[in-house]
Amino acid sequence: MPSLQSGSLTIHWSTRGDEHGEPLVFVHGNWTTSLFWRPVFDRLPARYRAVAPDLRGRGQTRAEPHDYSVSRLAQDLAVLMDALGLPAVHLVGHSLGTAVVLELALADRARARSLTLVAPAWPDGMPRAYHVPDRQRLAQENLALFAAAFRGIAPTAPNDAFFQELVAASHQQAPEATMATLDALRDWAPGERLRALAGVPALVVSGARDMLSTREVGARTADLLGARHEVVPDVGHSPNLEAPETLVALLDSFVKAPAGG
To answer: Ramachandran region of residue 78, left (φ > 0), alpha (ψ -120 to 50) or beta?
Structure first.
């Protein structure tokens, strides 16, 4: 896995495909790593250049100070894109990662050739009911509890060796990232500001069985962006694990559409 040092920031990322191909940058959600995108990478047409960083505090990416705000994560992403010579890319996010790519686009819309938001974060701020630090601490301390919670966000994903590898890697998230992300998602509430991104091609993908980022959250996000909204049947919070073929087909068709006018 390649890495980049920028001051106190060390970013690690995964890559796949044609180095000179159409660039796609994939940003994972909370409680996981870039490994979350492997089923998508395995199915993505080779003509794309796919890049998936570990967010700070996850995988092998670390940084001082311990700032896990959405704006800081977006700044980290900009650092990586600049280092890779990618001024503008197709941005793909999952859950927390959708907040990161939207924040980057709000700061500089020219960086986004398009936006694909999978199980999007709450555009009006994380509901108070999900701000439960004690549950996060228990998950951090107990792998079995964490594994059960992880299964809850990907209820139909195969329970195979890869899934177990992903659970183990995700559970290594830095404790400070775990706790700080609760506040970050509560405080990130762009709401109507997202309408400023009108004109950037956007696709929102929801899972019909997602109890966290519901189809209503997806519909609200799509309305704010003027985006197309796709609901994948019989899928929970993780279409990239539960229905990767469907997600890749949607993404491939969408990314090609803007270029074709």
So the answer is: alpha
Query: Residue 78 — φ and ψ, nearest 5°?
Result: -65, -40
Distances (CA, A) of 68 to 71, 94, 240: 8, 16, 24
Enter the pTM of the model. Answer: 0.96
CATH level 3 topology of 3-259? Rossmann fold (3.40.50)
Please write the tens of the pLDDT for every residue from 106-122.
Answer: 999 999 999 999 999 99
| In the chain, domain spans | 3-259
The whole-angstrom separation of Cα 190 and Cα 168 is 33
CB neighbour list of residue 160: distance below 8 Å, 6 or more residues apart: none
Residue 54 Ramachandran class (φ > 0 left, ψ -120 to 50 alpha, else beta): beta
pLDDT of 90-106, one tens digit each?
999 999 999 999 999 99
Torsion of CA 17, 118, 230, 238, to 10 degrees: 90
Strands 48-53 and 9-17: antiparallel
30-34, 64-68, 169-173, range with the lowest pLDDT: 64-68
